[in-house]
Write a structure and sequence with these properties.
Number of strands of chain B: 0
Radius of gyration of chain B: 15 Å
Order of helices and strands of chain A: HHHHH
Radius of gyration of chain A: 18 Å
Strand content of chain B: under 5%
Shape of chain A: elongated
Order of helices and strands of chain B: HHHHH
Strand content of chain A: under 5%
Shape of chain B: elongated
Oligomer: heterodimer
Number of helices of chain A: 5
Distance between the termini of chain B: 10 Å
């Protein structure tokens, strides 16, 4: 969580195109791999469920499909790494975090609505709670990246700002 | 169905995950050793796909056939994708991707058993 991350470069340039250190390199490489995995798992599973037994648990299957779309969006935008893509990535990770918390709570409070599990039910317990942790790491990574590249709160940010990203 | 292949894949996947995780912790890049490990995992997964296809060919069917077919397609892709994606990263995070692939292979065996209980672990 708090590795002394080795940034490729400090990158002090004010308004550059995505510098060599893109959001898809370094820790982002791992993040995208896990996102891609969940994008595939969630959307493929939802696809099969909706196609074969939609009536069994429509709410659960639609939520799984929605989760799959969000994972696909996060995977693509993190891998792309342009300014617009990073904004969409922040949005996707945020939706994901709200989704896993909301659906997790909903599934615990009202199990009858979820006769079959979604990726997000039980706060992602069926998937080792990775769905709960993943958006947090995604948001931390995006914020850390932006801070290291001088995109947060204006220019001239020092290294001490990078250490402060734990409170995102 | 014989449980040797899935059990071997679980062990191999976990060993690979541990070894690759160690490389990440020690700030090592991808090396030939990790690629060999991925290759072994790939071969084991292909053997398992063969075993399951043979089982299907003999007429046996699981309840969730579409899901099983999805797994048969996805399983051999995992080490390949991880190898390619990890090779592009010349830092400690390359091995981290390989570690995930090892864990995923192990988890897939457990899921396979849930999809089709004749596949023992």
């Amino acid at each position: 969580m708090s590795e002394p991350a080795a940034w490729p470069e400090p990158a002090a340039s004010p308004e550059p195109a995505p510098p060599p250190g893109s959001t898809r390199t370094g820790p982002g490489r791992l993040l995208i791999a896990v996102y891609a995995l969940f994008a595939l798992a969630a959307s493929a599973r939802a696809g099969v469920q909706i196609a074969t037994k939609f009536g069994d648990a429509p709410v659960a299957y639609l939520l799984s499909a929605f989760a799959g779309v969000v994972y696909i969006l996060a995977t693509i935008t993190l891998a792309n790494g342009s300014r617009t893509a990073r904004r969409i990535a922040v949005l996707a990770c945020s939706i994901e975090l709200v989704g896993v918390l909301a659906v997790g709570t909903w599934s615990v409070a009202d199990p009858a609505t979820f006769p079959d599990a979604t990726v997000w039910s039980g706060y992602g317990s069926g998937y080792g709670y990775v769905p709960l942790v993943l958006p947090v790491f995604g948001l931390l990574w995006l914020r850390r990246w932006a801070t290291a590249h001088g995109e947060v709160g204006g220019t001239g940010q020092g290294a001490e700002d990078v250490s402060a990203d734990g409170r995102t | 169905m014989n449980s040797v292949v899935p059990a071997t894949i679980i062990v191999a996947g976990l060993v690979l995950a541990g070894y690759a995780g160690l490389a990440t912790a020690r700030n090592r890049r991808m090396g030939v050793d990790l690629l060999v490990g991925l290759g072994v995992l790939e071969v084991l997964l292909l053997v398992l796909v063969g075993v399951i296809v043979a089982k299907l060919a003999s007429g046996a069917r699981p309840a969730g056939l579409p899901t099983l077919i999805g797994y048969l397609i996805a399983m051999p892709v995992v080490p390949l994708a991880a190898g390619l994606w990890g090779l592009m990263e010349r830092t400690r995070w390359g091995p981290a991707v390989i570690a995930v692939a090892g864990l995923v292979a192990a988890v897939l065996m457990v899921r396979l058993h849930q999809i089709w209980p004749v596949i023992h672990v």
